[in-house]
Every structure is written in structure tokens, then in C-alpha cells.
């Protein structure tokens, strides 16, 4: 009797285990094996962080070997190298991507595999909110899982400089403009550093567009549903002109020659404010050995009082899985791992914020705490430059360089007309 | 009159004689017909294969690509000469043609004339100027990317830039962004490219001067010619073949310039330093418009051919 009961219980337990195994990919994941190839283009501290993440995955899945495929780079935009690799026949399981427009290109070429089924079976809804899922979707189908994001409307500053100038982080646009004279008087001749050699000068316009016209208008502009000559766009550029005319910056030629913001801002005594991506945090912490929140900090873009001060620009990095990858099971498991506690906490220690609820928020430093708080309380819009077609984004950056040279209303009209002319052929 | 090799045979002493004269008959052009010498095929085959793979195939494929519209990872679409029509209607491309012309002429004129003058001066004391010539030639050996990074620091926009610091000795507080100002960026690039390019003209012109028979120079001295007259009336005219080669090599190098622009300005500011070579890279690799970029490549190729073919014909005629 006892034996029969034991046998029945054993059989039942076996059935239940089998059923559990059938519904829980994490159980199946223990049996993963083979090589997992990741198209990984990040270098420096970001690249090192990624190696730590991969090592942790291999520790959890000893049967899997992760191999990185590093495409040839190109002045900050890895897409050229990634396209060359994919067109050249390189087979990868996972692609690291930060450009929504590039995701669409990959989808249209049949390279990406939808991940809606995985989203349900792995239960990622518990870790990522619907807005993050929407960010990685095209026409209702999910292709990307966001693993880190950044606040692109945060202004970086050196705490000692603001203290010396006797000012606190400005909360309004007027306070911000007024702080320039105080900073100059304190010995910082160019309060705002704008590295305009390639693209960083567009950051100010993009947040100003959000703050003067809102996320809907910015989204419409990205999709060219409103023209670049729209008065809303002009208003944003005129606000930018206001800042330049208030004496924010070095002369235009100097701005147009700057490409490396970190040494400029943090090793020279010329400038104070920088509007740049959150990877700045990792670079300052790890490359320049500065103390987050002590040597430097951030404040959210000052309010303009035009009805859209609850908006922020964000960037994000996501993982995509390919249709031709040799190890789809390991790729799916890696996606699950990247939003899990182990990977999220590694990233937090490097100074990056994960959108996953699995991340231990206490690991984030004070700067990231400010940034994540600001994003969570804002209406967000992805970086405009990463949403535009490649043809257009180039013209957009060059025209804004022209604007920096002579920020008058006439130049604004001329510049917007030129971008609109390009936009008319770019979609 | 230039006689063809086929018409001439020489005896062992080098005296020309008519074919069939009973002397040793050296191979004529007709005698080297490749089908009559299978061994020649074997010897030349590796070169032909390598040339075909590394030059002919990419060239033909680039021309083929230029007739397609290829954007990113999207499938290619046949557009015929559409890319060329778009290219010549593209104001940006027309601007790059002008920039290329200025850059090419600027670097060629500066580096060749400077190299030529230095070669003349060095020729008066060839032994003593050997270290100087060696140093000048080293600049030619430095990779353009490396010299670009070096000059990037010299031309820094702030007071820490070497050039600004030197000017600052005379004009306190001077700071100019040489590479950020569209009015000076191209000229700064021309100067840097000329600096790294002056070594070759110097050596070529110096070699040409050295090949002038000493008797000619000695006769001029004996006749009481001053050094300036010797330089002007003897050395300069007789070193012209070296100058021509230097001009040819510099023109080709400047037309295809890319590395130094990529490193120093990225084609900016506001496309002020964007040459056809950089435009080609930007369209092909950054925008990934492979067909359009290929069309720009073909245009550049035609420009190179226009310069090369007359020079090659002239050199070949000279060889005969």
C-alpha cells in the first residue's frame, strides 16, 4: 500500500516536473549548449561591461559559449560595419541595437525574428512595462527587448564649478540663462560645451523641441507628418538661438571642432554644462575615476513654462534575435537573462540603468537615481536623430551646424527649409 | 624618328644592325608572342590572376553597382544611369568636386614647388643636407592617419594647441579654431597634406638634379655663371622630368585623399572639407547607399584616368 502510494506520488511528481519543464523555459535553459554569436559593437567601458555580462551568462549556462562578432567601426555609428557584416553573410544569433530606424531596416530585410511568443512564455511582462515593449515593437509585433536606457534631457555639471559660481542647479530656463554670467564671472568663459563636430549639437534642439511642442509633435516630425518648416519646430530653434545669444558657449568654430566632450568638460576649466547621453556616467566613473554625485552631477532640463515641461528625451539599447541564428534557444535564454537580476545588476554597477524590475535600484548611484526618477515621471520620446532616415539625419546635423554659425531668425528659416527639402525625398 | 624594337636588332657590342645580318639575334616584340612561349603564361599567370581578383573584378563590380539603387539592407533595384543623374544634380556632390579641385591643386602646388626648391638648395651641398633630406622624406613615410592625429593636436582650437600657443607668444591670448572655422579648415588640411607630401617631390627632384652631368655644371662655373643663374638656367630645366613625375603622383594622391580628412575633420565643418573621396565613403559606409557611393567612385575613377592616361602615354613614349 505504502509502496503503491509512493509509486503513484513519484509518477505524479514526475508528471508535474515534466509539465513544469514544458511551460518554464528557464528549466529547459539548463540544457542549453553550443555557441551563441552576438553582434557586439561597443568598445571601452561599455565593451568591458558586456564581457562581464556574457561571462555571467556562461557561468549560468556552462554548455553555452558566447562569441562576440565585432564589426568594423566608423566614427561613433556602427551601423555601416553591422550592415557590412550581415550582407557579407556573417551569421549571428543576437544583434545589439540602439537605433529604431535600423531595427525597421532589419525587419524589412527579414533578418529579425519576432519575440512575442518568448515575451509571453518567459513572462517578461513581470519585468518590463508595456511602454518598453512598445518601444521595441513595429506595427504591434515585438522585435526588441530593451536592456538599458538613458535620460537624454539631463544636463551634466561639475559640482565644484556651480559652488564656486554661487549657484544651484537652475530649475527654469530664465535661471539657466542667468547662470551663464555668474559662471563666466567665476572664471568659466563658456558655460555650456557643445561638441558640434558630428552630432551632439542636435541634443539641445531635440529636448527644446519636446519642451516647446511636446512628444506628439516630436513623433510627428520624426515620421514627417509635420514639415520641418512648422512653426513649432521654428520655436524650438529660436529657443536654442536664445541660449546662444545669451553667451552660453564658445565661438562657433570652436564648437564645430570639438568631438570629445569628456576631457573638454571634465579636465578643463572652461565649461560647466553638457547635454549628453547617460553613457557619460560610466565614462566619468570608470575612465576618469570621478565620484558620481560628488565630482559631478546632473539636473533635469530646466522648465520653459510652455506646457510641456513633463517631457524627456531618452535613448535605449535593445537586443534583437535573428531568423538565421544557429542557436535560437540560447538566444532566447540570453534575452531572458539580460532582463534578469544578474545582468541588470552588473549593468547597474557600471552606472547603467536597466528598465527591468529585477534590477536592484539601490545599486544605482546618485546621478542615475536622478535620471531614472526623471524618466519615470516624464512623457518620453526617443532621440529624434535615431528615428530619422539615414539620408535626412546627415542633412539635419549639417544644417544645425550652419545654424550654430549664425543663430538668427533668417538662418533658422533657411536651415529648416533645407532640412525640409531633404525630408521631402528621404521617406 | 623613334624606331620600334621590332625593327632593330643589336649585336653584342650594342651596335644596331638589320635583322638577319648573321649576328646574335635578340628577341623582338614579335618573337615574344605569348602563345609561342607557354612558359611565359605560367610565369605571368599569378600576376594576371591577382590583378584580376584585386583590381579588375572590384572595378567591374563597382561599375555594376553604380547602376543599382541600394539603400541599407534593402534589395537592390536597377536604376540605370539614375545614380549619375542624381549625383550631378546633388548640390553637395557639386560642392565636393570644387573642394576636391582646390585640395588637389593646393596640395600639389605647395608640396611640389616646395620640394623642388628644397631639392635645388640641397643640390648645392648634397652631403651636408643628407640628414635634412632624410627627415623630410620621413614625413612622406608617416601614415596619413598618424600625421592627422598629430596635427589635430597642433591645431587644437584652444590655447593649448601648439600653433595657437606659438602665435600667442606674439598675440597674447590668441586662440583660433583652425579646423572648426569653414574658412580655414580646408587650408589647414591642405597645409597638413602638403607637409606630409613634400618629401617625395624633394627626393624625385633631387635625384633629377643629381643626374645632370657634372661637366655641364662645371662648364657653367668656368664660364662665370652665378649659383642663381645655374639654378635657374640649368638645374631647374634639367630637373623637369622629376617635377613631372612628382606632380603626377601628388595629383593622384590628393584626388584620392581620405585618411587625413577622416581623422582631422570628418568632412566638416558644414562639409567644408568634404572631397569626393570622403563623399564616397560617407554615402557608401555611413549612409550605406552602395549604388550611389559606387557612382561617386566611378566619377573619381574617371578623374584619375583623365590625369593618368596622358601621363602614362608620355612616360611610355619617353621610355621608347
UniProtKB/TrEMBL annotation, chain A:
<keyword id="KW-0732">Signal</keyword>
<keyword id="KW-0813">Transport</keyword>
<comment type="similarity">
    <text>Belongs to the bacterial solute-binding protein 1 family.</text>
</comment>
<dbReference type="Pfam" id="PF01547">
    <property type="entry name" value="SBP_bac_1"/>
</dbReference>
<dbReference type="InterPro" id="IPR050490">
    <property type="entry name" value="Bact_solute-bd_prot1"/>
</dbReference>
<protein>
    <submittedName>
        <fullName>ABC transporter substrate-binding protein</fullName>
    </submittedName>
</protein>
<keyword id="KW-0574">Periplasm</keyword>
<feature type="signal peptide">
    <location>
        <begin position="1"/>
        <end position="29"/>
    </location>
</feature>
<dbReference type="InterPro" id="IPR006059">
    <property type="entry name" value="SBP"/>
</dbReference>
<dbReference type="GO" id="GO:0042597">
    <property type="term" value="C:periplasmic space"/>
</dbReference>
TrEMBL record, chain B:
<keyword id="KW-0472">Membrane</keyword>
<protein>
    <submittedName>
        <fullName>Transporter</fullName>
    </submittedName>
</protein>
<keyword id="KW-1003">Cell membrane</keyword>
<feature type="transmembrane region" description="Helical">
    <location>
        <begin position="39"/>
        <end position="60"/>
    </location>
</feature>
<keyword id="KW-0812">Transmembrane</keyword>
<feature type="transmembrane region" description="Helical">
    <location>
        <begin position="185"/>
        <end position="209"/>
    </location>
</feature>
<feature type="transmembrane region" description="Helical">
    <location>
        <begin position="290"/>
        <end position="313"/>
    </location>
</feature>
<feature type="transmembrane region" description="Helical">
    <location>
        <begin position="161"/>
        <end position="179"/>
    </location>
</feature>
<dbReference type="GO" id="GO:0055085">
    <property type="term" value="P:transmembrane transport"/>
</dbReference>
<dbReference type="GO" id="GO:0005886">
    <property type="term" value="C:plasma membrane"/>
</dbReference>
<keyword id="KW-1133">Transmembrane helix</keyword>
<feature type="domain" description="ABC transmembrane type-1">
    <location>
        <begin position="97"/>
        <end position="311"/>
    </location>
</feature>
<feature type="transmembrane region" description="Helical">
    <location>
        <begin position="132"/>
        <end position="152"/>
    </location>
</feature>
<comment type="similarity">
    <text>Belongs to the binding-protein-dependent transport system permease family.</text>
</comment>
<dbReference type="InterPro" id="IPR035906">
    <property type="entry name" value="MetI-like_sf"/>
</dbReference>
<feature type="transmembrane region" description="Helical">
    <location>
        <begin position="230"/>
        <end position="255"/>
    </location>
</feature>
<keyword id="KW-0813">Transport</keyword>
<feature type="region of interest" description="Disordered">
    <location>
        <begin position="1"/>
        <end position="22"/>
    </location>
</feature>
<dbReference type="Pfam" id="PF00528">
    <property type="entry name" value="BPD_transp_1"/>
</dbReference>
<dbReference type="InterPro" id="IPR000515">
    <property type="entry name" value="MetI-like"/>
</dbReference>
<feature type="transmembrane region" description="Helical">
    <location>
        <begin position="101"/>
        <end position="126"/>
    </location>
</feature>
Amino acid at each position: 500500500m505504502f509502496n503503491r502510494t509512493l509509486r503513484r506520488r513519484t509518477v505524479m511528481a514526475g508528471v508535474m516536473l515534466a509539465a513544469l519543464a514544458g511551460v518554464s523555459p528557464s528549466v529547459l535553459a539548463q540544457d542549453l549548449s553550443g555557441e551563441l554569436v552576438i553582434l557586439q559593437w561597443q568598445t571601452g567601458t561599455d565593451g568591458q561591461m558586456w564581457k562581464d555580462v556574457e561571462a555571467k551568462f556562461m557561468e549560468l549556462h556552462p554548455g553555452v559559449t558566447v562569441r562576440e562578432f565585432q564589426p568594423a567601426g566608423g566614427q561613433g555609428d556602427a551601423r555601416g560595419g553591422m550592415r557590412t557584416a550581415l550582407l557579407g553573410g556573417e551569421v549571428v544569433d543576437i544583434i545589439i541595437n540602439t537605433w529604431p530606424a535600423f531595427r525597421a531596416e532589419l525587419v524589412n530585410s527579414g533578418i529579425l525574428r519576432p519575440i512575442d511568443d518568448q515575451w509571453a512564455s518567459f513572462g517578461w511582462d513581470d519585468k518590463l512595462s508595456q511602454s518598453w515593449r512598445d518601444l521595441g515593437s513595429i506595427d504591434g509585433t515585438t522585435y526588441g527587448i530593451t536592456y538599458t536606457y538613458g535620460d537624454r534631457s539631463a544636463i551634466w555639471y561639475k559640482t565644484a564649478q556651480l559652488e564656486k559660481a554661487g549657484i544651484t542647479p537652475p530649475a527654469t530656463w530664465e535661471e539657466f540663462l542667468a547662470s551663464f554670467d555668474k559662471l563666466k564671472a567665476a572664471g568659466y568663459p563658456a558655460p555650456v560645451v557643445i561638441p558640434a563636430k558630428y552630432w551632439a549639437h542636435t541634443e539641445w534642439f531635440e529636448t527644446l523641441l519636446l519642451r516647446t511642442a511636446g512628444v506628439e509633435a516630436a513623433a510627428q516630425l520624426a515620421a514627417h507628418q509635420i514639415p520641418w518648416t512648422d512653426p513649432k519646430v521654428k520655436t524650438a530653434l529660436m529657443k536654442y538661438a536664445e541660449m546662444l545669444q545669451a553667451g552660453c558657449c564658445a565661438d562657433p568654430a570652436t564648437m564645430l571642432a570639438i568631438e570629445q566632450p569628456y576631457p573638454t568638460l571634465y579636465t578643463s576649466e572652461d565649461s560647466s554644462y553638457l547635454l549628453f547621453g547617460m553613457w557619460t556616467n560610466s565614462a566619468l566613473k570608470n575612465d576618469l575615476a570621478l565620484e558620481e554625485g560628488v565630482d559631478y552631477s546632473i539636473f533635469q532640463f530646466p522648465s520653459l513654462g510652455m506646457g510641456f515641461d513633463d517631457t524627456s528625451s531618452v535613448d535605449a539599447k535593445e537586443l534583437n534575435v535573428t531568423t538565421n541564428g544557429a542557436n535560437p534557444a540560447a538566444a532566447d535564454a540570453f534575452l531572458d537573462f539580460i532582463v534578469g537580476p544578474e545582468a541588470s545588476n552588473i549593468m547597474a554597477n557600471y552606472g547603467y540603468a536597466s528598465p527591468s524590475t529585477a534590477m536592484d535600484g539601490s545599486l544605482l548611484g546618485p546621478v542615475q537615481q536622478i535620471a531614472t526618477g526623471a524618466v519615470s515621471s516624464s512623457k518620453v520620446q526617443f532621440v529624434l536623430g535615431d528615428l530619422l532616415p539615414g539620408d535626412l539625419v546627415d542633412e539635419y546635423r549639417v544644417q544645425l551646424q550652419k545654424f550654430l554659425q549664425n543663430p538668427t531668425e533668417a538662418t533658422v528659416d533657411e536651415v529648416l527649409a533645407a532640412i525640409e527639402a531633404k525630408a521631402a525625398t528621404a521617406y | 624618328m623613334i624606331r620600334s624594337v621590332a625593327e632593330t636588332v643589336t649585336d653584342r657590342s650594342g651596335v644596331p644592325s638589320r635583322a638577319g645580318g648573321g649576328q646574335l639575334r635578340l628577341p623582338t616584340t614579335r618573337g615574344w608572342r605569348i602563345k609561342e612561349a607557354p612558359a611565359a603564361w605560367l610565369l605571368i599567370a599569378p600576376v594576371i590572376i591577382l590583378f584580376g581578383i584585386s583590381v579588375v573584378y572590384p572595378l567591374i563590380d563597382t561599375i555594376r553597382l553604380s547602376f543599382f539603387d541600394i539603400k541599407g539592407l534593402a534589395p537592390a533595384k536597377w536604376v540605370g544611369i539614375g545614380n549619375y543623374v542624381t549625383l550631378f544634380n546633388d548640390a553637395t556632390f557639386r560642392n565636393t568636386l570644387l573642394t576636391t579641385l582646390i585640395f588637389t591643386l593646393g596640395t600639389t602646388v605647395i608640396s611640389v614647388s616646395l620640394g623642388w626648391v628644397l631639392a635645388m638648395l640641397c643640390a648645392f651641398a648634397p652631403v651636408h643636407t643628407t640628414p635634412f633630406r632624410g627627415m623630410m622624406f620621413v614625413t612622406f613615410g608617416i601614415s596619413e592617419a598618424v600625421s592627422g592625429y598629430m596635427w589635430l593636436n597642433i591645431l587644437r582650437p584652444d590655447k593649448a594647441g601648439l600653433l595657437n600657443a606659438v602665435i600667442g607668444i606674439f598675440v597674447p591670448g590668441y586662440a583660433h579654431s583652425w579646423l572648426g572655422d569653414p574658412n580655414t579648415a580646408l587650408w589647414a588640411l591642405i597645409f597638413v597634406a602638403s607637409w606630409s607630401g613634400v618629401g617625395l617631390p624633394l627626393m624625385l627632384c633631387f635625384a633629377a638634379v643629381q643626374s645632370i652631368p657634372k661637366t655641364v655644371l662645371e662648364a657653367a662655373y668656368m664660364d662665370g655663371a652665378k649659383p642663381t643663374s645655374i639654378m635657374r638656367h640649368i638645374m631647374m630645366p634639367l630637373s623637369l622630368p622629376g617635377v613631372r613625375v612628382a606632380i603626377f603622383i601628388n595629383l593622384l594622391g590628393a584626388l584620392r585623399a581620405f585618411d587625413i580628412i577622416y581623422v582631422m575633420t570628418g568632412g566638416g565643418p558644414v562639409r567644408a572639407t568634404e572631397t569626393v573621396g570622403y563623399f564616397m565613403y560617407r554615402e557608401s559606409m555611413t549612409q550605406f547607399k552602395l549604388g550611389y557611393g559606387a557612382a561617386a567612385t566611378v566619377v573619381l575613377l574617371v578623374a584619375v584616368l583623365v590625369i593618368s592616361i596622358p601621363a602614362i602615354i608620355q612616360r611610355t613614349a619617353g621610355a621608347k
